[in-house]
Each structure stands twice: as C-alpha cells, then as structure tokens.
C-alpha cells in the first residue's frame, strides 16, 4: 500500500469482535450493491451467523485493510482451504476493495497476505471468480497473470413469464416415462437414514463440466454434506431438496435443491440438479425441476425470480433451463493462478498498485 495511513491486519472470521463484523458487513453491502444493486442485502445477523458457522473441514484466513481511525474497513480478503481427501493442491480466495479506494495498492497488499498463507498451507493453486458488473476484478486477475478456467452465467427466470402448462406437461411426462419412480421432498434436512445414499447421489455433480479448471472430483463424506447444510440453515436460509427414488430398488436416481431467505423474499436460488447416468433419458431432470417449482410457488407465493449458475459449456442443463424460460442475467469467470506466478508478480511489480 502506498498510503501508510491504512493498516492491514488479520482477523478470525468465526470469532471477530462486534466492531469488526459491523465494518465487514458495511463493506460487504457496498460490494454487493455494485454487483447486484437491485437485490436487498441480507441482515447483519444473517451474515454474522454465516461467518461464525463455517464447516469444520474449511479453514478460513482473513485480512482487512482499515482506515487511519481503524473504524472503516476499506478492503478485505480471505483464503479458504478445505481439509478433504481431494483438491489438496488448491485454495479459494476473494479480494474486495471499496470502489473509492481502488488503484491504491490495497488489493496487491491483500494478495501478498493470501500468497503467504497459501504457501504456508502447502497449496500451489489459487482459484477465484469475477463478474462482468465489476470489470476491475477481471483486470486485476489478468494483471497478476491468472488465466480463465471457466466461463459461466447466472441465469434468471422471471416467474411472471413462467409457463405453468409446461410444468404440468413435464410432470405428466415424468410420471409416464419414469414409471416406478417417486419424488421425495425434504425441508431443511437430510434424513439421517438417507444421508449415506444421498452423499453418493451428490457425487453426480462431479460430472458437471469443469472446462479448463485444474481441479479433481470432490470426495464428499456424509459428515461433509451434513455440515454444509447446517452452515446454510444457521443464517436463516430455507433449503428444499427433492429426490427421485426408484421404488423397486429404493435407490436414489436424481435430485434438485433450492435455497430461499426471508430477507430476499422475492428471490429463489436454484442449486444443484443432477441425475445419475444409469437413470438418464427418462425425463427425471425435467420432472424434478417442474415439481420443485410448483412446490415452492405454493410455499412462497411472493417469489418473483429464480436464479441459477451454469457453466456456459453445460449444454444439457442449459437446454432444460432455457426451455423453462431462464435468460442470461450476468456473466462470471472463474480464474486460476499458480502460487509461483503470484509470487513472481509480487516480486517483480512491487510498486504496482492494484
């Protein structure tokens, strides 16, 4: 940083003091308004609950740049590493700088902290994402020598334009083509007796495109899956999971999941949807999507939009979503950069601001 009035300090994400959480919340809201100005922010209580309740297998390293009075957070960064059997070579990071304080070296100073922590954890690759709404993000990643690993979009469905007859057809076709299957709905839980089988089902998401990303299949345990759900629920999110089960064998064939939060009553987030390869070609994906939409529209009639993220290369899922009426809402790029490249950038461009 070129201005010595600013101070960079680390903090504990799960056990920060109230002043730190309030300052981090103010910065988070400012950055969110830049990305999606039409969305209301989550409450301070919801965000603090999220920060304080990360899964035990996730380690977060966090830093903030403060103003001279140590009252306002001007920028922050975090590095997340996951203690799992897979992807032990990679860490995920984020850097956010208040728009009024960009190009003053704050991002670069935070990147140096991220690089040091990455080296200390033995990781060699850093992954992050940027959005078209904030061009400074892509410019920063290009400057440090990162490469795009995946192009994706957030796609949005305007429920005022939803074809309800299409939903009815998809459900009828699903019952016909997938006779012998049933749909189960779980509210804010994965039943304990079903958790091992559901964990195996979730692994189908490893078949989604990864394009050029240097990542391995994620190896999940039932404990991982349960902890991730708990970390979502604690901040006030409602989670609905619908599972397709073959009645004769009792085996799971596919699933879809959505998230809703009362602070954003008009907005539903469509999470993962997947069907095991052995059960494809029977209309299960469309049946699950249609049945879930009809379910949540009855439960939350105030819903106005549904958003979901898809890799631009995921033709199969995009086909279903476009048929439903989803349209591109904003584009994202997932970037990757080797630790060695970051260290070379920091060593060679010590005077460059970011």
Q: Characteristics of this structure?
A:
Aminopeptidase; 12 strands; 12-stranded mixed sheet
What can you tell me about this protein's structure?
- With 354 residues, this protein is α+β, with helices and mostly antiparallel strands.
- The chain has 2 domains: 7-151 and 334-348, Gcn5-related N-acetyltransferase (GNAT) (Aminopeptidase), CATH 3.40.630.30; 163-324, 3-Layer(aba) Sandwich (Aminopeptidase), CATH 3.40.630.30.
- The protein has helices at 18-35, 44-52, 106-121, 135-143, 164-177, 195-202, 222-233, 284-299, 315-324, 339-348, and strands at residues 7-11, 58-66, 73-82, 90-97, 125-131, 147-158, 181-187, 238-246, 252-260, 267-275, 305-311, 327-338.
- Helix 3 (106-121) links the parallel strand 4 and strand 5.
- Helix 3 packs across helix 10 and helix 5 (164-177) crosses helix 8 (284-299).
- The longest helix has 18 residues, at 18-35.
- The chain is globular and about 70 Å long.
- The protein starts with 6 loop residues before the first strand and ends in a 6-residue tail after the last helix.
Outline: globular
The portion of residues assigned to helices is: 25-40%
Cα-based radius of gyration, to the nearest Å = 21 Å
Taking the sheet with the most strands, its summary is: 12 strands, mixed
Oligomeric composition of the shown chains: single chain
Mean pLDDT: 96
The fold-level CATH name of the largest domain is Aminopeptidase
Distance between the termini: 9 Å
Question: Roughly what fraction of the amino acids lie in strands?
Answer: 25-35%
Structural class: alpha+beta
CATH superfamily of the largest domain: Gcn5-related N-acetyltransferase (GNAT)
Catalogue the unreliable spans.
none
What is the highest CATH level, the class of the largest domain? Alpha Beta
Number-wise, the strands total 12
- Helix and strand string, N-terminal first? EHHEEEHEHEHEHHEEEHEHEH
